[in-house]
Amino acid sequence: MKSKFLSMLAIAAMLPTTCPCIASTNSSTTNGLAAAATNPAESTANTSAFPKQILRTGINLNSNGVSANSMQLATDIQLTPVLERIQALRQKIDSLAPSAERSDARLDLLESKEQAMQIITRTNLEIDFVMAEMTAEQNVYNEILSTFTSDRDKLLARVNAASFISNGALWAVCEGLTIPTHTKGVYAVSSGITGILAGIIPSFASLYTLKAVNGKKKTSEVEPNMLAKLFNYPTSPEIEYPASTWSYLNEVPASNPSGKTRKDQMVDRWISDSNIPGFTNRNSKTQLDVITGSVAQKKGLSIATLNTRQVMLQQLSAEIMKMKRMLLELSMVVQGEKQLVATQLRPVPTTKNLNTPRSIASRRDILQSDAAANLTSQTLENLGVP
What we know:
Blueprint: H1 2-18, H2 20-38, H3 68-76, H4 80-95, H5 100-177, H6 188-212, H7 243-249, H8 262-272, H9 285-291, H10 303-321, H11 323-334, H12 370-382
Helix pairs in contact: 1-6, 3-11, 4-5, 5-6, 5-10, 5-11, 5-12
């Protein structure tokens, strides 16, 4: 009995050196508690288990009017005056009989439609500019995440295999020592020690898997991503936002009762989302340094960090992509399928005086007869101008 007790004391004394994972786990827990005390989580952190979409555009393709958010975007990209001019020109054309003046108005309409489509195309390309960088960043993070996940799975498989093999082997030895021989009845002490080891070794292997399941952790890289500007971190030309997309993110959505910008609403959603446990405080420098990839943090790069970056970039890109829905609605206004019913139409700008000669309609000087005016009308119809 005394020998068994001494053996148990010896095993207990060996645990800190034979199982460094216990000490490492305790150290990690201590560091985590210290960080939590410095940057306490916000009151709404991780409170939503099943989040919904962050923003809605309010677009109805079957309605005659334009949504408030689309009108807001048209103002941001300076498209509203062009759309109003297009509608005013259509009204003018409808009110005129076939004549040189009507032909000139139709040429103006063609020019205005081309200008509007150029603005829409540029904004569309600016959205693609942002999306291309976000997609490239997600590809890099996904590659690192795959490596970290694979290494984690292999480590867990080895630990579990060692645990099962050692447990079975030690219990087999333990039971073998209880079999009496012709010289000694049983090896009670040896059998007891072996049985203790058969229980302790798999137990500590299981404790180690609780740490290993999080995967390896490395010092985070210093390579800012598209999330950096959202949290006021320095940026480079590669991760800058075009004016249209940045204005869109920093505006309060039309008819939104919260009074918060789109960017602030996204940050609120990320904090409340329980599927993003690594982000709980928008003012936590420790969390933001790692998420934005702006400042190196020891053991900052992990599976959890990469998952957080992936989810946030995916949701940010999805919200920016909704600008394309608004651009579609604005292009329908250009084609005459919708009307700017929410905006009072202004007179055609004086800079576009339809009664003065212009370079695009210089031929009007030689159109002196009704026959020439009719010929111009036929040409415009062939071009697809109403």
